């Protein structure tokens, strides 16, 4: 048996162990807008559902290498709304493209050639090419060590159809998520 005392191992090993064991992680492809209306889009896999009544989700967003807040966190904190776009494997290239470290004035919808679509209950646009969408309002923001922890209240859920073909994050790679025909 191997054991790792997290206070005494390198940070990158701790990250590797956490992300290998908590797997697969769902991917939130988060669209947001700045107060000036500049669109932003980026993927986050430190993401999950917190509770269902009321429906809350969380995103854990690290700071940039220079200590600045990432655009997604800044926009959500300042505007109070965001959309989680859910995708399957045909959009992995675009998801990766939008994870680039672009300055705030860059619109990642344009960078990745994606179509902004009006949302129903929030002013933040959705990605038309996605398969499902959660429109969210900011419920709470906490600074946690070097992270912005965002709790979002899901106010609207839209599905293109029921064939979601979800993908996830398995350690540092993408994976397909399949159902096993067993259990309730
Ligand atoms: C699949 C995937 C998952 C990611 N998950 C996270 C995450 O959970 N938290 C985080 O801070 N960054 C995560 N990143 C990195 C961000 O997407 C990246 O820092 C991005 O530039 C942030 O953009 P923004 O400044 O427009 O918000 C992830 C990247 C990829 C490709």
Defining traits:
single chain; Pnp Oxidase, Chain A; 4 helices; alpha+beta; seven-stranded antiparallel β-sheet; 184 residues; 16% helix; binds flavin mononucleotide; three-stranded antiparallel β-sheet
Structure in words:
This protein is an alpha+beta fold and 184 residues long. The protein has one domain: Roll (Pnp Oxidase, Chain A), CATH 2.30.110. Flavin mononucleotide binds next to strand 3, strand 5 and helix 2.
Helix content: 10-25%
Q: How many DSSP-defined strands?
A: 12
Q: Can you give the mean pLDDT?
A: 96
DSSP helical segment count? 4
Largest beta-sheet details: 7 strands, antiparallel
pLDDT below 50 for ≥5 consecutive residues: which ranges? none
Order of helices and strands: HEEEEEHEHHEEEEEE
CATH superfamily: Electron Transport, Fmn-binding Protein, Chain A
Which structural class do the helices and strands define?
Answer: alpha+beta
- Count of discrete domains: 1
What's the level 1 CATH class? Mainly Beta
- How big is the Rg? 17 Å
Termini, distance in Å? 33 Å
Summarize the structure.
With 184 residues, the protein is of the alpha+beta class.
List the helices and strands and how they pair.
Blueprint: H1 11-21, E1 25-26, E2 28-33, E3 39-44, E4 47-52, E5 55-62, H2 71-79, E6 81-86, H3 92-97, H4 108-111, E7 116-117, E8 126-127, E9 132-144, E10 147-159, E11 167-170, E12 173-176
Antiparallel strand pairs: 1-11, 2-3, 2-6, 4-5, 5-10, 6-9, 7-8, 9-10, 11-12
């Amino acid at each position: 048996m191997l054991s790792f005392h997290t206070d005494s191992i390198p940070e990158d090993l701790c990250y590797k162990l956490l992300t290998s064991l908590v797997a697969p992680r769902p991917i939130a492809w988060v669209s947001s807008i700045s107060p000036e209306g500049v669109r932003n889009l980026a993927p986050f896999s430190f993401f999950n559902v917190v509770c269902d009544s009321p429906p809350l989700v969380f995103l854990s967003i690290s700071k940039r290498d220079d200590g600045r807040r990432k655009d997604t966190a800044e926009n959500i904190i300042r505007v109070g709304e965001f959309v989680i776009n859910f995708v399957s494997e045909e959009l992995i290239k675009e998801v990766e493209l939008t994870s680039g470290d672009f300055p705030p004035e860059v619109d990642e919808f344009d960078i990745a050639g994606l179509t902004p679509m009006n949302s129903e209950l929030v002013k933040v646009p959705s990605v038309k090419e996605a398969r499902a969408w959660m429109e969210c309002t900011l419920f709470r923001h906490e600074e946690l060590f070097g992270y912005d922890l965002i709790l979002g209240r899901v106010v609207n859920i839209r599905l293109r159809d029921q064939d979601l073909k979800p993908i996830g994050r398995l350690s540092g790679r993408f994976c397909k998520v399949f159902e096993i025909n067993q259990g309730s």
